[in-house]
Amino acid sequence: MKKTLAALCVLASGSMASADGLPGMTGMDHIGFTVPDLEQAVDFFTGTLGCQAFYPLGPFSGGESTWMQDHLNVDPKATIPAMRLVRCANGANLEIFQYTAPDQDSKQPRNSDIGGHHLAFYTTDMDAAVSYLQDKGIKVLGAPTTMTEGPSAGETWVYFLAPWGMQLELVSYPDGKAYEANFDARLWDPRS
């Protein structure tokens, strides 16, 4: 009975927020990021990675108001000439922005920088995916690393760079990860 109750709690936690979490949360809708050239980014995500582009939005500005600062925490004179929604197979949507701003920092953050980030894409064939990226002239950082110990054992990963320097990653774990032996709950899995 205790095991059944625990399993029901795990299932319930996957479909709604916990009592001390965000009310009504059911999952991640999108990941937003800014690029230097929107068309280049959309072409890369659709033409190279095979994502699907959806509708464009913009332009947006606050005019002479502080709307952009008040609502988006950017310089009040910032503008969004255009943005685009993209979906990459079975995962969250990407909301890709192109901004202009008087105080814009054009330096791409590294993972070690505050605000650093990367997007990871699951592949069922790591070797073929790496070869494909290299054939397209995409910079792949080193060779794929396979985790053989710890909770991520069973996962193979490698970083690569978008043409504008954004950090991306390929991951693959066709037989799952080692953590699954010790946890009833599961991380979101693009294989399902």
In short:
Helix content is 21%, strand content 28%. It is α+β, with helices and mostly antiparallel strands and 192 residues long. The protein is globular and about 55 Å long.
Highlighted features:
single chain; 192 residues; 2,3-Dihydroxybiphenyl 1,2-Dioxygenase, domain 1; four-stranded mixed beta sheet; 4 helices; globular; disordered N terminus
Structural notes for this entry:
The chain folds into two domains: 28-104, no CATH class; 107-192, 2,3-Dihydroxybiphenyl 1,2-Dioxygenase, domain 1 (Roll), CATH 3.10.180.10. By secondary structure, the protein is an alpha+beta fold. The strands form two sheets. Strands 1, 2, 3, 4 and 5 form a five-stranded mixed beta sheet that branches. The chain is globular and about 55 Å long. The model is unreliable at 1-17 (pLDDT under 50). The longest helix has 14 residues, at 2-15. The chain starts with a helix and ends in a 20-residue tail after the last strand. The protein has helices at 2-15, 38-48, 67-72, 126-135, and strands at 30-34, 52-57, 60-61, 79-87, 93-100, 119-122, 140-146, 156-161, 167-172.
Distance N to C terminus: 28 Å
Strand/helix succession:
HEHEEHEEEHEEE
Approximate strand percentage: 25-35%
Structure annotation, total helices: 4
Low-confidence stretches: 1-17
The CATH topology label of the largest domain is 2,3-Dihydroxybiphenyl 1,2-Dioxygenase, domain 1
CATH class of the largest domain: Alpha Beta
Q: Give the name of the CATH architecture of the largest domain.
A: Roll
